[in-house]
Amino acid sequence: IRESGIPEAGLGVFYCGDGEIPIGTHFGPYEGHKTHEDQAEESGYSWVIYKSRHKDEYIDAKSETNSNWMRYVNCARNEEEQNLIAFQYKGGILYRSCRLVTSGEELLVWYGDEYARHLEIGFDRLWNNKSSAKGLSSVFLS
User: Fold this and answer.
1) Which residues have a Cβ under 8 Å from the Cβ of 73 and sit 6 or more positions away?
2) 3-class DSSP state for residue 42?
3) If DSSP codes are grouped into helix, strand and coil, which group holds residue 56?
4) How far apart are the first and last CA of the chain?
5) Mostly located where (predicted)?
6) N or C: which terminus of the chain carries fewer CB neighbours within 10 A?
7) Which of 10, 22, 56, 18 is nearest to 36 (CA)?
8) Are 107 and 101 in contact (CB under 8 A)?
9) Segments of the chain scoring below 70 in pLDDT
């Protein structure tokens, strides 16, 4: 965790391991405390968890003591720099690598298509076009 390459973004997460992070690697879940919509909107560290058509929960990672390293992953500014997709799974938010990530590269997330549909955000490519089942690995970190 160090200063992000995105201007005025604060801290960011950089991969410093040997080799590459393969396509399909999962990270998560995103940790924080449950909060209300108004607090989540002010936080800058919150994700919405969809429970039903009329009920949502919010996970807020603003507090460092109630969160994990995933709070420092910034949003990608464009398709080329994106290397993670956020998606909801079993009541939590996970990040999935959508391309190979090399050592020294900053981890940058964007919404997965399913999550974006809930948020009504247009995203011009399909999940299957960005992620491959080949070489799929499930590495969960907390």
Assistant:
1) 12, 13, 84, 95, 107, 108, 109
2) helix
3) strand
4) 15
5) nucleus
6) C
7) 56
8) yes
9) 112-142
